[in-house]
Amino acid sequence: MIAKNTICLWYDKDAEIAARFYVETFPQSTMGAVHRAPADYPSGQAGDVLTVAFTVAGIPCIGLNGGPAFRHSEAFSFQIATDDQAETDRLWNAIVDNGGQESACGWCRDRWGISWQITPRVLTSALAAGGVAAQRAFSAMMAMRRIDVAAIEAAMET
User: Fold this and answer.
1) What are the backbone dihedrals phi and psi of residue 100, each rounded to the nearest 5 degrees, phi first?
2) Could you tell me if 120 and 19 are in contact, meaning their C-beta atoms sit under 8 angstroms apart?
3) How far apart are the first and last CA of the chain?
4) Residue numbers of the domain that contains 98
C-alpha cells in the first residue's frame, strides 16, 4: 500500500545505497521497491535506479536519483529520539563514521547531505519541563556536538 504522504529525498545517484544504509542503521526501517528508469533522462540512462521506496524509523520515504542539481540543507532533518547514551553513540557514529559530518547541538549530516538530529529523550524532557533546569540543560546542549546524556542530567540537577 502506498502511503498518502511520503517524504521524497533527492540524491545525485546514490538513493539505493543511502536507503540500504538507513535500513541497516535505524530501527523500524525497511526497504521497498527499487524502480529503474524506463528511458534515458537528463542525469541518467535507461535501466539506472530512478527511485527507491524505503521506511526510515517508521517514516515512509522515496529516494529519487535526480542528479546534482539540488543539494540538501539543514532546513530539513530527521529527528531521531534515543533512549540512552549507547543508542545515541551508535546512531551518531554510524552516520559520522560513514562519511558524515558532525554539527552542533546533536545534529550531524550523512554523506549524502541529509541532516539528522540524534536527540536523547532526556534532553527533550528537560527542555519541555521549563524553568531553571531547562535553561541549564539548554546551555549545556549549546556547547555540545553529540549530546552527552550524563552532562544533560548533571545540568538539570545542579
Assistant:
1) -85, -170
2) no
3) 50
4) 72-158
Three cell numbers written together for 56: 526510515
- Map residue 37 onto helix, strand or coil: coil
**Identity of the residue numbered 5:** N
Asked if 154 and 88 sit in the same domain, the reply is yes
CATH number of the domain to which 101 belongs: 3.10.180.10
Q: How far apart are CA 95 and CA 112, in angstroms?
A: 10
Residue type for position 39: A
Judging by DSSP bridges, how do beta strands 59-65 and 77-82 pair with one another?
unpaired
Beta strands in 5-137 (DSSP E): 7-11, 30-36, 49-56, 59-65, 77-82, 101-102, 107-109, 115-120
Residue pLDDT, tens place only, 32-77: 999 999 999 988 999 999 999 999 999 999 999 999 999 999 999 9
Judgement on whether residues 80 and 28 belong to the same structural domain of the protein:
no
Note whether 56 and 26 are within 8 A (CB).
yes
Q: What is the pTM of this model?
A: 0.93
Here the cell at position 106 is 546533536
Task: Give the number of domains in the chain.
Answer: 2
- Give the position of cell 562519511: 99
